[in-house]
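Hi again,

Forgot to attach this to my earlier email, sorry! This is the prediction with ANZ bound. I've pasted everything inline since the attachment limit keeps bouncing my files.
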Amino acid sequence: MRARTHRYTGIKLQLLELPPSLAALRGRTVYAIAATLRPETMCGQTNCWALPSGTYGAFEQKPGGDVFVCSHRAARNMAFQDAFAAFGKCEVLVERVPGSELIGLPLRAPLCSYEVIYMLPLLSIKMGKGTGIVTSVPSDSPDDYAAFTELKKPKKQEFYGIKPEWIEPYEPVAIIEIAGIGTCAAEAMCTKLGVQGPGDVERLAEAHDVVYTQGFYKGVMVRGEFAGRTVQEAKPLCKALMVAQGSALTYLEPDKEVISRSDDECVVALVDQWCARRTRPHHGCPARTMPCPHHALSAPCPARTMPCPHHALPAPDCPAAPAGARRTPCSAPRPAR
Ligand code: ANZ
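Structure tokens for the complex follow:
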């Protein structure tokens, strides 16, 4: 089984109030970190989701600095990617932050069209994916649209103990126009396919595939800093903007659970490591190193480190690599010699 990596953007949603478990952190800047693969959709946020039965932690970015609330698993991955003061270590300020305590907290979210949004419950959150906190864009995510629409029902609000003011003033925001579908593609596809609600997994999966694919290839931004640009253009621009503002970070994690021989759960670590492919090309000559795809040289990249052939990530010291790239993230085992 070969694991790949997911490169998430961790969106920093500032907690404007602290729950009882975080009371000792009063006066500190505390962020819920939501993992997304769609940074270009952040101007469409209407709320954030947490798992009420989930357990989160609070982690200090550096001594006296900002505090991140996310799953322990995500914090461990981040710790091996220079997100915290010491490589490989996360300073746990609060071990147990119950998801139920996060529900109803007001948040300030980057690039969001609403000044304040609220944390709401979502039962389909997987604690083994991303940070366990998900920012909600009902205009372009069918899953968010179905869950958001469900929580607009007074009976559901009563059931989950949700105050109407946490959801009623909020509506999906038109942010991307997709030719043939329109703006608010999630609503359009859920209606077209007759999605019955958040539990209608099959139809939601179909809507998800259509909205994601069509949005990626045909979508044009109609709101925000990059209005007029295609989704493909806006994606890296929005991400870079938020990272430059300090309102987001990039982090990677394995796309599936990887357990080592010592029975530890593996993380993605930024390490000074050369990944060399030793497979034989078709003409039978052993290939010792990979040429750098940026330079398209037949010899190895002149830079200090090589791109990892498992993940095809750019060489950090390669002139074509994005600014800030330092080391080669690689979660794959070294090829056998
Ligand atoms: C904002 C957003 C906007 C998202 C948008 C999607 C569409 P997939 O969809 O499988 O490729 N996500 C992140 N962590 C999650 C978790 N622990 N449990 C459930 N869902 C989670 O995965 C990427 C998307 O899954 C992420 O991007 C996040 O929702 C959701 F128009 O963020 B997205």
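The CA atoms of residues 73 and 128 lie 7 Å apart. The chain has a mean pLDDT of 86.

That should be everything now.

G.
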